[in-house]
Every structure is written in structure tokens, then in C-alpha cells.
Design brief:
heterodimer, A: mainly beta, 6-stranded mixed β-sheet, 3-stranded antiparallel β-sheet, B: mainly beta, 7-stranded mixed β-sheet, 11 strands
Chain lengths: ~110, ~120
């Protein structure tokens, strides 16, 4: 099976940059996306096709994907960005989510 | 407004069955691939099943193969998940989700429902 590994937690100060990594075998050869999930809410797509933002997602969210790692970057992090973040990719009709990262804005 | 509304969850005994429904509105349902994703309490997201826009092809996670069946009725704008031989480990909040784009290339889920809870006990 295909696995995507994320750090369990990331802490960031308000206004600073948070980087969340997601690792998987040859992940750079696939399309990666990212979801934000706040407590008690459904996930929200924040990045798709490696680095594209859906309508309504702030510009401070950006993504990259190369080699074995995809990265979600939140620039100028705000308190409202505190949430769980999941990477996701697909291969051979199977879709895989990462293990999830809790972002804490201190 | 683009919306997905799940229903059909509940408490079921191990070995039992349940059918989940997901009613779509605000978009042309028949043009999109659709998915089920689940999340056990306090844990992460897990993909369950996928069906192509015309229902011609489905795919399932290994953990549910042979037990769960995804289907759709494009005339009723509704997605289904028939769950048989349920196990305690199937306990989770089940979300239906729309795949972005209409070609199945992007593999990203741009619209999610609010979820319906399934408890196997």
C-alpha cells in the first residue's frame, strides 16, 4: 500500500511562516493536494494539483511538490489557520491521505 | 449553493448492514466523479470508495473490498454506499465528497458534506 507521512504537529507564531511536509515514494510524480480541517468541521480543500488554490482560499496558502515530498506553506500565519492539515494523492485508482499535522498558532 | 447532504448513519450490530445516501444539489451531479471518505473519532481521513461520473467504474479501499458497494442515481442526484458485514473498525463519520474537475485527473475533493456517523457496536 502507498503511505503518506506527515509530522504530527507544527507550531508557528502569528505572522510567521509555517511549512508542513508530506512524504511518499515518488510523490513528485503524482498530483498532491492539501486539506484544512477545523474541529467539528468538514475538510476544506486549500491546495490542489500541487500548487493551485481553489477560489476563496487566501494567497498565504501555497504548495510545492518534488521528489518524495510535497509541502504546504502558510505565509503570515493567522490565528484562524490553527487546524489539522492533511495531504492527499492518488495512484492507480487508489486515493491516500497523509497522517495529518496539527498546526498550532502560539 | 453547491451542497452535499449525507444521511443513513446510525447504530448497527457487528455483521449488520447499512446504506448511506448523499444528496447533491447546486451542480450538475452527473458530470462529477464522487467519493466516500471516513474518519474514525479522533483520527485522520481515510478514503473508502470512488465512482466515475456515469457509474461505469468503481474503486474501493482494500479494507472494505467485498463488503462495501458504491453506487449512484444520476436522475436523483444521489450517491450511495451500501455497507455489509460491518465491523467495529468501520465506526466512523462518513463523508461524501465531489472530485474537482470532471475528468478524474485531479484526484482532489473540492466539495464535502457534513458527514453521517456510523457506529458498529
Amino acid at each position: 500500500s502507498y503511505d503518506l507521512t506527515q509530522p504530527p504537529s507544527v507550531s508557528v507564531s502569528p505572522g510567521q511562516t509555517a511549512s508542513i511536509t508530506c512524504s511518499g515514494d515518488k510523490l513528485g510524480d503524482k498530483y498532491a493536494c492539501w486539506y484544512q480541517q477545523k474541529p467539528g468541521q468538514s475538510p476544506v480543500l486549500v491546495i490542489y494539483q500541487d500548487n493551485k488554490r481553489p477560489s476563496g482560499i487566501p494567497e498565504r496558502f501555497s504548495g510545492s511538490n518534488s521528489g518524495n515530498t510535497t509541502t504546504l506553506t502558510i505565509s503570515g500565519t493567522q490565528a484562524m489557520d490553527e487546524a489539522d492539515y492533511y495531504c492527499q494523492a492518488w495512484d492507480s485508482s487508489t486515493y491516500v491521505f497523509g497522517t495529518g499535522t496539527k498546526v498550532t498558532v502560539l | 449553493e453547491v451542497q452535499l447532504v449525507e444521511s443513513g448513519g446510525g447504530l448497527v450490530q457487528p455483521g449488520g448492514s447499512l446504506r448511506l445516501s448523499c444528496a447533491a444539489s447546486g451542480f450538475t451531479f452527473s458530470r462529477y466523479w464522487m467519493h466516500w471518505v471516513r474518519q474514525a473519532p479522533g483520527t485522520g481521513l481515510v478514503w473508502v470508495s470512488r465512482i466515475k461520473s456515469d457509474g461505469s467504474s468503481t474503486s474501493n479501499a482494500d479494507s472494505v473490498k467485498g463488503r462495501f458497494t458504491i453506487s449512484r442515481d444520476n436522475a436523483k442526484n444521489t450517491l450511495y454506499l451500501q455497507m455489509n458485514s460491518l465491523r467495529a473498525e468501520d465506526t466512523a463519520l462518513y463523508y461524501c465528497a465531489r472530485e474537482a474537475g470532471s475528468s478524474g485527473v485531479l484526484g482532489a475533493f473540492d466539495i464535502w458534506g457534513q458527514g453521517t456517523m456510523v457506529t458498529v457496536s
